[in-house]
Specification:
CATH architecture of the largest domain: Orthogonal Bundle
Distance between the termini: 66 Å
Strand content: under 5%
Number of helices: 9
Helix content: 55-70%
Radius of gyration: 19 Å
């Protein structure tokens, strides 16, 4: 009988989350179960229940960790270009795109409807809101610098996010014409999208 893997404190949860992402990528939500996740992680069928009450709790954890990682990437860029608002906006958008490119399966889960009752997972709500507030701060810095038009920063942040997110989803689903991709790099295309709402 094969020996089960042993994990140091904290490693098991991350291993289960990673296994969950892999299963979601291959089999979709309908193919995800804590039993399958345990099998892929090489632990007993009961092991996941020490961290997750059910499949929804696992999906919430996958998404929460994704938003935490996304925030780390974007906040690092935002801090780096704090005195250059327009560059900060473009670089933060590119960091968002790169995150999606690096981990497309988790990205799709984060922004899908598979998490049915978001409010039951306060950590998920907190991390997702923290990301949006960062976008809003970047927008406000660009408004103050005259790069973006004035107006409700939350609504303009939603517009900017929608532009970049829509572009990412089109790319992930292979919906961007090859003719377009042959003329411009992904980064150039992202910057072009943002230039449509920038005043300078």
């Amino acid at each position: 009988m094969p020996k089960k893997k042993s994990y140091h404190h904290g490693d098991l949860k991350n291993a289960l989350i990673k296994a969950g992402v892999e299963i979601l990528a291959k089999d979709g939500v309908s193919g995800l179960s804590l039993r399958k996740v345990a099998g892929r992680a090489g632990v007993s069928h009961s092991a996941p229940y020490s961290h997750f009450a059910d499949k929804q709790a696992l999906i919430a954890a996958i998404s929460t960790e994704g938003f935490r990682q996304l925030y780390e990437r974007e906040s690092t860029v935002a801090d780096l270009y704090a005195d250059q608002p327009s560059k900060q906006l473009i670089e933060a958008a590119w960091a968002y795109v790169q995150f999606a490119m690096d981990d497309p399966d988790r990205f799709k889960v984060m922004f899908s409807a598979v998490l049915e009752k978001e409010k039951e997972y306060p950590e998920f709500v907190s991390e997702s809101q923290r990301n949006f507030q960062l976008v809003r701060r970047i927008i406000e810095a660009n408004q103050a610098a005259g790069v973006l038009r004035s107006g409700p920063s939350d609504l303009i942040a939603l517009s900017a996010w929608g532009i970049v997110h829509g572009f990412v989803m089109l790319w992930l689903e292979g919906q961007i014409s090859h003719a377009v991709l042959e003329k411009s790099s992904l980064r150039e295309l992202v910057e072009f999208q943002l230039r449509q709402i920038m005043l300078d």
